[in-house]
Amino acid sequence: MHHVVPKATYYHVSVWLAVLLALTVAAAQFDLGGWNVPLALAIAIAKATLIVLFFMHVRYGSPLLKLFAAGGFLWLLIMFAFIAADVLTRAPIGSG
Amino acid sequence: MSSSTAHLAHHFDDVEQQYDAAQLGMWLFLATEVLFFGGLFAGYALYRYWYPEAFVVGSHRLDLWLGGINTAVLLASSLTMALAVRAAQTSDSRGTANFLGWTILLGSVFLGVKAYEYHHKFEERLVPGRNFSLSEKGDKSNFPDRDGSSSTANGKLDLSPFSPGHVELFFSFYFALTGLHATHMVIGIAILVVLVVAARRGTFSADYFTPVEITGLYWHFVDIVWVFLFPLLYLIR
Q1: Which residues contact B221 (CB under 8 A, 6 or more apart)?
Q2: Which of A8, B14, B21, B93 is most buried (CB neighbours < 10 A)?
């Protein structure tokens, strides 16, 4: 009645998570100019996506479940976008 | 069908609908959790944008290896949690209890390392408050005062581009974020202990494993929070 994920899938996902962890630690040892933060975030998002899709079974869920799962992150994105819009476009009063 | 309908609450049509509702409800709760942590992450992003140098200084006082090992431990605990759910789905009560036990063990190791790190930070006087100090043990170097002005004990102006008050701010975020995360871990472990007892009694089977699945979602979510906390706190350069 429910999708039982093969053990091998879980093992493969874990290996990828370990590789990505090693990658993010290695990348932090080098000065990549402005690219350190975007790279670290990209790797973190990749790890989170693997966990959500496979460990949390969203990949095998109904479209409604996928909508619920994406919803929280969508609102988070909106919050970050509005804060960034506010902070990045304003200067202190009197600075012209 | 008789064994599965035993778990069916009267306000659902069938067990399938009941299972779907439980899953959706948990994801809705996790959405509120995303925004709960999201507020702190947003604050972190703002202050890091304003005081990048201070955040680098603060981050370098954290132990990269302890943080990295803890990340690996937590990722491993997510694997054992996923295997526990799978064992429940395949009516393997013994396997369910065992994998839940491993998850509890790995979660406890994580909290133990975290406690060691906190203790170390207390000893190094890196906890925000009146005793906060950036001086390392035996180091008499002259750090600027909390407001950024130099105390100039040796007569020359300290030209460091960061203010210790802003490093203190980094540690406020460090303790708030990791503390909230650790609180979630403690709650998760408590729930897992209840599940182990239930699994040993043979409560879960292919017909009914909703509590294991739902707790798994919670555990993986807490793992995801750490996946972002690790690079944002430990890997700033």
Answers
A1: A56, B30, B33
A2: B93
Nearest neighbour of A72 by CB, restricted to B35, B71, B76 = B35
Q: How far is A86 from chain B (nearest CA, A)?
A: 11
Interchain proximity A72–B237, CB inside 8 Å: no
Q: Is the pLDDT of residue B141 over 80?
A: no
**pLDDT of A25:** 96
* B-chain residue closest to A13, CA distance: B79
Residues of A whose CB is below 8 A from B71: 21
Domain B24-138+164-234 falls in which CATH fold?
Four Helix Bundle (Hemerythrin (Met), subunit A) (1.20.120)
Average pLDDT over residues A64-79: 95
Closest CA to A54 of A2, A14, A27: A14
pLDDT digits (tens, 9 = 90+) for A13-27: 999 999 999 999 999
Residues in chain B within 8 Å Cβ distance of A49: none
Whether B79 sits inside 8 A of A47 (CB atoms) is no
Q: Which residues contact B72 (CB under 8 A, 6 or more apart)?
A: A18, A21
Tell me how far apart the terminal alpha carbons of chain A are, to the nearest angstrom.
65
